[in-house]
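queue> pop job 88
queue> type: inverse folding (structure -> sequence)
queue> payload:
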């Protein structure tokens, strides 16, 4: 298969994405920077945000796909879906954001409304997460296997071929 993307029934498109550059040195990062922790790929995980030099979690109260899209765009991905209930495992203190509400047009999570930094009533069983869509991938539910990207749609496996 020599295609950069391939279309099949139930699948719109696919092109293997690249990871955006990241730094774990908080001195290289701006206030409000975000990262994903605990996922099995670089584009999924528990959402953590940098505030006053410390990483903290985001509560899943009011957490929606619109917020997930904003977070994923902030990380350089093309979109994403929200996960709640500590889907990627519980984080540690502090919980920085609760009641985070985005309409999906914001450039970063810091532009979304929330209860205020550190104003929260959550425990870490409510940590928010995301599954981002790597650039060009139209469905984040799939996974790489044997050189193909497989997407399970309605219990039916579709094979999507792609070259890097």
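queue> result:
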């Amino acid at each position: 298969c020599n295609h950069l993307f391939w279309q099949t029934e139930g699948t719109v498109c696919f092109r293997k994405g690249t990871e955006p550059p990241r730094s774990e040195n908080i001195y290289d990062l701006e206030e409000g920077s975000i990262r994903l922790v605990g996922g099995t790929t670089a584009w999924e995980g528990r959402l953590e945000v940098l505030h006053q030099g410390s990483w903290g979690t985001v509560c899943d109260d009011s957490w929606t796909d619109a917020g997930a899209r904003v977070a994923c765009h902030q990380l350089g991905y093309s979109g994403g879906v929200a996960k709640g209930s500590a889907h990627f495992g519980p984080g540690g203190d502090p919980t920085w954001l609760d009641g985070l509400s985005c309409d999906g047009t914001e450039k970063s999570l810091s532009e979304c409304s929330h209860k205020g930094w550190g104003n929260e009533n959550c425990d870490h069983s409510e940590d928010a997460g995301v599954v981002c869509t790597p650039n060009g991938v139209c469905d984040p539910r799939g996974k790489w296997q044997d050189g193909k990207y497989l997407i399970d749609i309605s219990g039916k496996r579709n094979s999507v071929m792609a070259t890097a």
